[in-house]
Amino acid sequence: MTATSLTPQRFFAERFGIAKESLGRILGGMLGKAVDDGDIYFEYLVSEAISLEDGVVKKASKSITQGAGVRAIADSRTGYGYSDDITIENLALAAQTARAIASDTAKSGAVAVGQSQHTPHDLYPVQTFPTEVPLRTKIDLLLKIDQIARSYDPRITKVFASLASQQKIVLIATADGLVVGDILPLLRLSVSCIAEHGTNRQTGTHGGGGRFEFDFLLDEERYVRYAREAARQAIVNLDAIDAPAGYLDVVLGPGWPGILLHEAVGHGLEGDFNRKKVSAFSGRIGEQVASPLVTVVDDGTLPGRRGSLNIDDEGTPTGRTTLIENGVLRGYLQDRLNARLMGLPLTGNGRRESYAHIPMPRMTNTFMLPGESDPEDIIRSVQHGLYAVNFGGGQVDITNGKFVFSASEAYLIENGKVTRPVKGATLIGNGPDVLTRVSMVGNDLRLDEGVGTCGKDGQSVPVGVGLPTIRVDGITVGGTQR
């Protein structure tokens, strides 16, 4: 089959003999007095990964993963069974297992979830799957990137470049008769550079991707920018001084710094944490939780974006959900289970890592909407502070919103001007509290380049983040005390 003629229903019917009538019988046998809801999730995944180190291919792999999972839900209890051998017999056995686990508790009489009013999207049409592009084309691209990065500065001593691509086909059958599928391409190109000067050794990373044709990465302007940006960061960090420690005004740059918003605030707005009342935002819908300048949305409908989906992993079309509007908490991100138990609308945010995992509320593309301030005016407004442009790792406690993030590229702001680069800066704070101290929001909203991966309860899914330039009046910065 070609990419244009392939449909999920046809694919699973022809490859595994899965007919719609069989799905109905399996689901019908699973449901009963003790089970409120259920679904069957099929997945066929082709993955390819290539890595280059110092101009030499170090690893190249291609794999196929397939399987199906059956879920039974009784009140808040979930039973799940799955198999990597897709047959009607194994699906029936998985359904019996799921029902046995879930029906160990009595039915509560909760109202079943209604179908979303949205229509399915077509956010990432492809003519050729990225996994079908010749290997030679991909290796040649990585070799060009290696050369470009090395030529940026003689102090670049090592270059690592990697390329990952996927083709995923999913089919979902729900207890209320919906049978819907999706075909999802995914690309990710990563570049890391090491710069050395004497004993000083620093790194820089960059990259991008999304749900596009492979030609997206063959655009010369794009891959040259990825390579030079990784090299530039490494060279900048060679000249960085130790970051100051203290309570500073902080300006967050546009784009990838939205990862702080994702971690420190976004997870706390997922439905399961709020249903269980363990989030700092639990029970606060309608309350002022942020500066009036702050509006945060989650949008899974942006064409080609890494976090976008035509349908979520429960078959619900994705949408644009306003989480915080002018500082007021408006809603949470929901999957079927938590929407039903909380009596709130579906948002199309039920996501899972694979057929071997149960879905849960997860973000798609989460970002703050732009404001009216000129980014240069925001910088000029700070007499002494920190300008954080890129972030590395971070941690957050959902129950109280406390976070710690390390800045991989940051600069001092002195007398309203960006001056010296600093290293070793960490931002320490509380997500809900930080949002209340956003005093300026730039007009330069930028989404990340398409490299984000989010982890939750042992599951990883691709996501997007975004942010305009913002000023936060006071964050604890960990660095070197002077």
In short:
By secondary structure, the protein is α+β, with helices and mostly antiparallel strands. 22% of the residues lie in helices and 39% in strands.
Residue stretches low in confidence (pLDDT < 50, at least 5 long) are 105-118
Largest sheet, in brief, is: 6 strands, antiparallel
Mean of residue pLDDT values: 91
Secondary structural class:
alpha+beta
> Structurally, how many domains make up the residues?
2
Termini gap: 65 Å
Total number of helices: 10
Which term fits the overall shape? Answer: globular
Sheet with most strands: strand arrangement: 3-2-1-4-5-6
Radius of gyration: 24 Å
| Share of helical residues | 10-25%
Number of strands: 24
Task: Walk me through this protein's architecture.
The strands form five sheets. This protein has a six-stranded antiparallel beta sheet with strand order 3-2-1-4-5-6. By secondary structure, the chain is α+β, with helices and mostly antiparallel strands. The model is unreliable at 105-118 (pLDDT under 50). It folds into two domains: 8-238, PmbA/TldD superfamily (PmbA/TldD fold), CATH 3.30.2290; 241-478, no CATH class. It is 22% helix and 39% strand. It has helices spanning 8-16, 20-30, 88-102, 135-152, 220-238, 258-266, 271-275, 336-342, 375-380, 431-436; strands at residues 37-53, 56-74, 77-83, 156-174, 179-197, 200-210, 241-242, 246-252, 296-299, 320-325, 328-329, 350-351, 360-361, 365-368, 384-396, 402-414, 417-423, 426-430, 438-441, 446-447, 453-456, 459-462, 464-467, 470-478. It has ten helices and 24 strands.
